[in-house]
């Protein structure tokens, strides 16, 4: 799997490795943090290779489920002789057991393909594999966060998949949210298949609403209605305080889509080459949220978050309203601390927007086993593949209801997610080009000064614009 990289490209990869490894954490995109457990070598060693399974994923049940599934058709042939493909991903020990089971049954269907799996923490993943790219060696298949792929394409690290898709009549592209594919496309070609895809929703604590005698949120809600209700639901002080809404909006890759675009504002321009966070529309919106923090105490301050010892106010029942991705529903379904519900994000004067975000698997350009790699990701990311793996936020819409049922997620909420993805979820406004992490890192401490009351919103946003603007030269796509 050797590749010939120029000195210029090696330097670019080194910069990427230094600047991008924790991009997901910047946007409240907590899926990767949940997956970033310790490497799973110990967990894998405990699995019987002839009957892989554990208490969470018993082998007999996995075998029965696998046998009930019909795998999609493709005209890509299996290798004539034994080959080995390397699959590099992020996972935790429990999920890796399911991956091991998938690999076991995949090899039964494709006996000439051996699978070598490499699992790393999310935080160290990009640094590790960019170093390998600079050294001329990469795995055949790699996990990709949505904010990485455009950089990978620019550096000729990943291969387009369109020829394989054309040879696979069972691909069913219409089963994938079109808005969520934009992160992995360039020049009309698709370079990654989504591993997961979800919009953001408005979550609410039913117990807090019941205590206050207020009606639950629904699709008629505006942002003004949400804020008005959040003020009514704010009560108490100190460690027992209940916040009407959490968290306080901060600079993040999806700040535009969730909070600014409903009012006609943006963090960056649509092509991510100009800063727009100090426009009148953005200043007005961010001033509103800053007032809710500093004047009304509706959202948690930095000091209050420290008082809670970094416990998430929403997950601990200290917040009545919360906007986050559909991927948190698996965790919510398991907790017993409070009853919860979910509905559409509220609309502003400029409309209703929800980011469709996710990750993908890519085939590396230097792979010598692209056919075998395609066969693997094709089945792994097919609707039957999702049904077997039973993950939250499957990219294929046909897998949402079966996955929700298996994970204890209410069917009406799963239907809501599908509706949002089909209706108004978008990648517009979600930062994904190379300067993303640098821009967020530069903006965040300035905005935190505003959250502490040291500067007003307009001053903070002007400072952010001045600091971030020069960084965006990296986002010019040739």
From TrEMBL:
Pfam families: SBP_bac_1 (PF01547). Keywords: Signal. The keyword Signal applies. CDD domains: PBP2_TMBP_like. Residues 1-24 form the signal peptide. The keyword Phosphoprotein does not apply. Residues 29-53 are annotated as: Disordered. It comes from the Bacteria. This is ABC transporter substrate-binding protein. It comes from Nonomuraea typhae.
């Amino acid at each position: 799997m050797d590749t010939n990289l120029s000195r210029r490209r090696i330097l670019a990869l080194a910069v990427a490795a230094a600047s991008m490894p924790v991009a997901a954490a910047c946007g409240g995109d907590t899926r990767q943090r949940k997956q970033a457990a310790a490497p799973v070598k110990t967990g894998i060693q405990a699995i019987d290779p002839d009957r892989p399974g554990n208490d969470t994923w018993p082998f007999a049940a996995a075998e029965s489920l696998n046998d009930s599934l019909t795998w999609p058709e493709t005209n890509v042939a299996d290798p004539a002789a034994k080959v080995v493909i390397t699959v590099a991903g992020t996972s935790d020990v429990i999920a890796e057991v399911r991956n091991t089971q998938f690999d076991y049954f995949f090899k039964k269907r494709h006996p000439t393909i051996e699978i070598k799996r490499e699992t790393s923490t999310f935080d160290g993943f990009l640094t590790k594999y960019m170093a390998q790219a600079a050294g001329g060696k990469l795995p055949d298949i790699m996990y990709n966060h949505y904010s990485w792929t455009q950089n990978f394409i620019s550096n000729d690290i990943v291969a387009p998949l369109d020829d394989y898709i054309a040879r696979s009549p069972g691909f069913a592209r219409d089963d994938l949210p079109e808005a969520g594919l934009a992160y992995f496309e360039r020049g009309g070609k698709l370079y990654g298949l989504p591993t997961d895809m979800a919009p953001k929703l408005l979550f609410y604590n039913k117990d807090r609403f019941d205590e206050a005698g207020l009606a639950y949120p629904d699709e008629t809600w505006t942002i003004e209605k949400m804020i008005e209700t959040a003020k009514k639901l704010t009560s108490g002080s100190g460690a027992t305080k209940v916040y009407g809404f959490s968290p306080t909006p901060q600079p993040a890759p999806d700040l535009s889509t969730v909070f600014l675009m409903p009012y006609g504002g943006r963090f960056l321009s649509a092509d991510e080459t100009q800063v727009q966070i100090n426009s009148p529309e953005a200043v007005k919106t961010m001033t509103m949220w800053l007032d809710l923090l500093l004047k009304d105490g509706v959202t948690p301050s930095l000091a209050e978050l420290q008082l809670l010892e970094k416990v998430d106010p929403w997950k601990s029942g200290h917040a009545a309203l919360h906007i986050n991705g559909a991927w948190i529903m698996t965790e919510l379904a398991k907790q017993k601390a409070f009853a919860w519900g979910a509905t559409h994000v509220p609309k502003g004067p400029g409309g209703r927007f929800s980011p469709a975000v996710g990750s993908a698997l890519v085939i590396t350009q230097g792979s010598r086993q692209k056919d075998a790699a395609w066969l693997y990701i094709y089945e792994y990311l097919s609707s039957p593949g999702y049904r077997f793996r039973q993950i939250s936020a499957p990219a294929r819409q046909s897998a949402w209801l079966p996955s929700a049922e298996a994970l204890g997620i209410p069917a009406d909420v799963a239907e809501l997610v599908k509706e949002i993805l089909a209706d108004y979820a978008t990648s517009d406004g979600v930062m994904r080009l190379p300067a993303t992490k640098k821009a967020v890192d530069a903006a965040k401490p300035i905005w935190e000064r505003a959250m502490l009351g040291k500067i007003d919103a307009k001053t903070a946003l002007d400072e952010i614009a001045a600091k971030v603007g020069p960084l965006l030269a990296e986002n010019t796509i040739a």
